[in-house]
Specification:
alpha/beta, TIM Barrel, globular, FMN, Luciferase-like_dom, EC 1.-.-.-, SsuD_RutA_monooxygenase
Length: 399
């Protein structure tokens, strides 16, 4: 491997995790939909102590309210930035602008919003949303425009759009700084068009490197054509690590068996939303297609976890030693990702484990690059599945 840096390589990286409200996991589901306050406090404290930069507060019709949880994160931490997941069907944009600006002021500029247009008709209908998927993205576009106007207009204004109408709003409540970063994700044509023209951040689930590279080029080309700054790129993985590659792959195969059983039984609380049949959202369809073609891609990407969950949410893994997984993360940084979300299947223990053993390796590599303008040895010394004769089944002892 050459020591030259790719022209696409991000120069910095920040890490994201998802906050969990209780110990229930896909490996060991707990029959509760509630908040275990002690667990939640320990979880967000672990994220801050372990060096994560952001935490995502997810949204669902049966989950805790993401804004309230984000506010709690803001008060329980000093540095961690809460990313509030918002579905535009659930609240009026001017109210969301007010909520976000309030959170941003309370956290002295740490708020971020991730807009979810909605990829499942049944889940949208649970809260009264019957728009077809293509129109949901059009609504998101109008929603984004109104968020930004609410934060920046200095005089009252009217609006008469396709989805929202009001008179004489403003000036609105301002954020701590000039604005609040807006993230959009998705793999449909509509997601790319809206995200490319309007988002500050565009998010992807973990896919093979060549495919992620092509998707980044696509969204950046739309931004360029619109005369907007290129988006930061957010990519999400579910790492499975251990002391040796062999132990990691044995763990991974065991995890897939347990997770598959959990999903078949319907014992993990979100499965009523996404299990069974062909998923409606393009991201899940792509994940299942990758899984059908191969279980292992590139240095460490593993798709069996997507296959056994019907690609329900972010579900592709990175498998190997901490060094191998860190090298794989750097591979994605090399194609342009500068926001990397890693969350495990053993949620609290994995968050601490990544903080001790993965994040520092990635940051050391980027520090070396900043100092020398060249790659370090991390990628060359940890080939993972790129090694000649690599066989995941053999490592895992399944044949």
């Amino acid at each position: 491997m050459t020591t030259d840096l790719p022209t696409t390589a991000a120069r910095t990286v920040e890490f994201i995790s998802l906050s969990h409200l209780n110990p229930s996991t896909e490996l060991a589901p707990v029959p509760t939909r509630g908040i275990d306050l002690d667990y939640f406090r320990r979880y967000v404290a672990t994220l801050e102590e372990s060096g994560y930069d952001y935490t995502l507060l997810p949204y669902g019709s049966s989950s805790a309210d993401s804004f309230v949880v984000a506010s709690a994160v803001g008060q329980l931490t000093e540095r961690l930035r809460p990313i509030v997941a918002v579905r535009p069907n659930t609240a009026f944009p001017l109210v969301v602008a007010q909520q976000l600006a309030t959170l941003d002021q309370l956290t002295e500029g740490r708020a971020v919003v991730h807009l979810i247009s909605g990829g499942n008709d049944a889940e949208q209908a649970r809260q009264g949303d019957y728009l077809p998927k293509s129109r949901r993205y059009a609504r998101t576009s109008e929603f984004v425009d109104l968020l930004r106007r609410a934060w920046t207009e200095t005089a009252p204004f009217d609006h008469d759009g396709e989805f929202y109408r009001f008179e004489g709003f403003g000036p609105g409540f301002r954020p701590y700084g000039d604005t609040i970063p807006i993230s959009i994700g998705g793999q449909s044509d509509e997601a790319f068009e809206i995200g490319g023209r309007q988002a500050d951040v565009f998010s992807f689930w973990g896919e093979p490197l060549a495919d992620i590279r092509a998707q980044i080029e696509r969204v950046h080309a739309i931004a360029d054509a619109a005369g907007r700054p290129r988006q930061r790129i957010w990519v999400t993985f579910r790492p499975i690590i251990d002391r040796t590659d062999q132990l990691a792959w044995r763990k991974a195969y065991g995890y897939a068996e347990k997770i598959g059983a959990t999903f078949r039984e319907g014992s993990f609380h979100k499965r009523h939303v996404i299990a069974g049949g062909t998923p409606q959202n393009v991201g899940s369809q792509r994940a299942l297609d990758f899984a059908a073609r191969s279980e292992v891609y590139d240095r460490a990407l593993w798709t069996r976890t997507a296959a056994v969950t019907n690609a329900g949410g972010a579900s592709t893994a990175l498998v190997g030693t901490p060094e191998t997984v860190a090298a794989a993360i750097v591979d994605y940084i090399d194609v342009g990702a500068d926001l990397v979300s890693i969350r495990g299947y053993d949620t609290l223990a994995d968050a601490a484990d990544y903080g001790r053993n993965v994040l520092p390796l990635v940051r050391q590599e980027l520090a070396h690059r900043a100092a020398t303008g060249r790659r370090g040895t991390l990628q060359a010394e940890n080939p993972g599945a790129l090694a000649p004769g690599f066989d995941a089944d053999a490592l895992a002892g399944v044949r």
